[in-house]
Every structure is written in C-alpha cells, then in structure tokens.
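Methods: example folding runs. The two proteins below were folded one after another, and each record is reproduced exactly as written to the output file, sequence line first and structure-token line second.
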Amino acid sequence: MIKIISFTLGAMSLLFLATASGAAQESKPVAATFQFGNQVVTIPAPEGFEDAAAQFEKIRNHFTATESPGNTMLAVHLPSSECRKLGRGEVAPFTFYTKVTVAKTARESDFSAAQFASLVADLQKTAATLLDANSASIKQSEAHLGKSLSELNKEKVQVDFGQPVHLGVFDNRPNAYSFMVLVNLKVQSGNDEVVTAMLGGLSFIRVRQRLVFVYTYRRYESKADVETLREFTKQWIGQILAAN
C-alpha cells in the first residue's frame, strides 16, 4: 500500500512561493493526458487556469526540484492572467495555484477501491501525528525543501513550516478524499526572511485504478479564503473524476 507519509511530504514541499520569471511559451492544452502503465489519466485544467509547468521551463524545473523524492510532478496550474505575466517576462505572484503528482512506486500499479478506503481510514487515524511540527516527516520535508531551494537559488535557504493546523476534511466521496491545512511558512534566504500564511487543500483521488495526489494552494488573508479554496478544490476534483 502507498504510504500516507509520501503524500504528506509532497504537499508540504510545494508551499514555497516561487518567483520564477517568464520563459518561452508553448502550447497550453485545456486537458493533459499522462501514461500510467497501461492506463491513460486525463487531468483537465481548473476553469480559468493553465498548466504553467507545461509552458515555462523555469516553473517546471522549480517544482520538479522541490518535489518530494518519492513523487513525480505532473502539472502545476496558475491562473491564466498569471501565465500571461510570465509570458511577458514579469514576475507573477504565486498566491493561488495547484499541483498534481503521483508516487513513483504507484504509477503502474492498480489501486483498488478497497485499498483506497483503507488508505483513507489510515489517514484519518494518523493525520494529527503526520502534521506534528516535531515529527520526522515534517523535519525531513523542511530539510529537503531547504536543500533544493539552496541549490536553485545558489545561496543557503532555510525553511520552517511552523505548526501546520488541520482545518478538517471537506470532501469525502467514492474515489476522492480531501482535507485542508493552514501553514505559516517561513523562508529565510541570506538576510531576508519572509513569512506567509498559506492554505493547502490536499486530495487523494482514484482514477482509472490509479492513485493520484492533487494539491490546491491559496494565500490566506481572511476566512473567506478557506471557503473559496474548498469550493474550488471540490469542483476541480469532480471535473477530474468525470474526465476519467
């Protein structure tokens, strides 16, 4: 069975706000397809968003480098307006974005409905432990992200997630399970230190007998952002399930 810890670490690794500049723009299909062994999985872009990793090499390289070592990054979506800024060589604020990944060990393996139910049950029992700021999984994730960002930025970067806050499960249906966390992310690079409150919608979905990880992120500025991200995530998960 896929370890829950792999999913959790992958989620935490993407809470850094990248400041990649624009690169050559490529085609931007509304729905992308990915080969999962003998299955083809379709991932439509959320409404009003585009796959920035497919268009911009610097975005693709950044999110690939900061991904959890046990996962493969498939897509990173940004609002279309932010992609236009990147295409013009401007810096786009990463205040609302998504990511889709798969565990490397699971890409070609069937994942049954019974396995999915068991995974959800395990997560419900261990979520508090996995999100403990002093847990080995969180410390390993902070270290991995700091190392990756140091290599990308050519200077030492330190990352501190603080104590993630579990905001509860907001989607629990056949083949989909989502919960939300709030993280006060601190990134220190040289003499600069930035602290950002970020919401993370963390979702497991089972499509075409494959387990896929879906992440949605939004900068937290008010309680309204929580509901916005919940509804956005539920709608998009429904679109992904319907496309497969």
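Second run, written to the same file directly after the first:
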Amino acid sequence: MPKSEITFGMSFLLVTFGGIINRTMIKKFTFLIILLQAVLPVKAQLFPQLGAQRAGISALTFLKMDVSPRSAGLAGANICLTGDAYSTFTNPATLAEVENFSLAGSNTFWIADINYAYLTATTHNARAGTFGFSLSALNSGPMEVRTTFQPEGTGELFYANYFTAGLSYSKSLTDQFSWGVTGKYVQERLAEFVAQTAVVDLGFLYETDFKDLRFAVMVQSFGVNSTLKGSVKLDTTFNKKTLSLDSYPTPTVFMLGISMIPWKSADGKQSLTTLIQLNHPNDNAENIRMGVEYNYKNLLFLRAGYKINVSDQNFPTGGVGIRTRAGRHPLVFDYALDPMKYLGVVHRFGLNFTLNPENSIR
C-alpha cells in the first residue's frame, strides 16, 4: 500500500477525532487511542498481505456486496450510520432508531450486466423493539454453455442466481446502547447445481453525547459452510477427472467503526458527518473505509468516500440523496457511483419511504 494512502488515512483520523481526546476522556476512549497507534506501524503490521493467500476460499461472496446507495457513496463505511430501512443490511443494531414503518428498495447495476436487487421493510413496537424483513436477488443474466470443441458456445444457456430472505430484530437497552441481529436464508443456483445455507449478522452500537460520537461493532455473514449439490453429464472421453463439489465457508467479515458530526451550522440546518471503519474479512486482506456526508436542511445529502487496501478500487466513491415527500410521508431518493480501475463504474439507485403517522390521513 502506498505511503500516501497511509498518510491520507492518518490525516483523516487526526483531523476528525483529534479534538475528542483530553484528560477527562482518555479512559473512556482507550481503545480509540490503541486504534490510532495501530495506524503508525509499517504496512506489514497494519495490513498483512494475506489477500493472495486467502482469496477464493469462501463461497457466496455476493453477501458482501453493498445494497445501500447511501452506504456505497460513503465507500461502505456503514455500521455507524443513523438507522434507516437499509439497517437490515448495514447494521441491525441501528434498526432500533427506526421508529416508524419504513420501506426501501435498491438496485445495483454491477459489472458484466449483473443486477442485484434488495427490498426491505421495518416496523417498530415501543415495548418489543424493531423488526425488519428483507429480500435480495442477484441474477447473472444468460451465459453460454461452452465445451472443448465448441468454445464459442453450444447454443445452450445457463444462469447463476442468488437469493436471500432475512429477518431482523433490534432493541435499545439504554439511551446509548443498542444491539441487533439479522438471520438470513441463502440460496445459490448455478446451472443444475443448488446450495442452501443460513448466515447471521450481529451488531452493537454505542452512542455518546459528544458531537454525536458513535462506536459500532458488527460480525457479518457468520454461518454454516455452503456446498453445491447436483449432477451434470461430463464427456468422459476427454474429462477423466470426476467432478468434486467441496464445502466452502461463508464470507464472514468483522467490522469496527466510528462516526462523528464535527461541524454543525449555528442554525442547525447544515452538518457534516465523518465515518471511518476497519473491515477484517475471512477471505481477503484487511481494509479501511472512510466517508463524509454533508447534510443541507435534511433535504439534500452529498457523500464521498475512499477505500484503503481494496484491490483495483483506487478511486473515491460518491453519492447524493434527495429528500422529498410522497403525499404527507417522507421519501428519499439515493444514488451512488463506485468506480473500479479495470471493471468500470458500478451504479446504485434506491428509494426509501417512511410512514409518518402524525401526518397520515385517518
């Protein structure tokens, strides 16, 4: 990783969080100091280059694909974001902040004409907590069947399809601490082969009263190994080896994040939110995500982000959010672009509708 990226990351940390450490707060934020000290060592200590050794060891890697345009615009620094309907994916602990019925949907236009759709709904009960339900579907589009003697295609087509259905629950234990969990059923279909498994997302959120400083920890996609099952006819004249279907782990990611609002205008109509997040996946190298969101009157949101130590993603991300109304109810349109060095630009669109019971027609 270039030294410029380390310098950039350190500058971001010091500018954003430098003002929060004083004599009265050292004990409270001891682990933050440890995190800052961890950035100082050389590259090999902060980012062990294990990506080449571990890449490809897990299945169902689509589970790591961001479904929230807001999060994608912030380079995936998402576990400390304020709660919305997409919390069923970003961090179920923040779902406790969604107190009204909310419905959201998004579509990711991935590379090679791959589409990834996500739909989620949440509901809140003052005593029981907040519940969420989510569905996602990824489709590869048609692909041609190719053989040794027909490399241009046999005329047959096959598809790769992925589907998830999730249930989420979140509860605020105190005014400052909340937790949440999402359980997902996951299905993979590749031609005649099918794999089914289950994964769990578990998150925790702690919020302070100092500049809306928030800390979050999350484990994403912890679950049972996945194995494709099915049968296919092979031409044994030239294919002597039998087809072996091994079991692979799910793409589990451990995340640690911090966010803060370092600036608000005197009239409270404008603010700036900064976020930083460390990701430790089980199938690739550790990486850092950083994001900044500018809020103008809760009507316009401008977002930018940057990823450190993510291969082939060396460009900043960006996004915009526009809040309007559908009748008397809030409606937010979000868009994000995520440029990649060799594969092009990924676009994400989303709509987030929230029922406002105080203004609804009765």
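Comment on the second run: Residues 3-47 have pLDDT under 50 and may be disordered.
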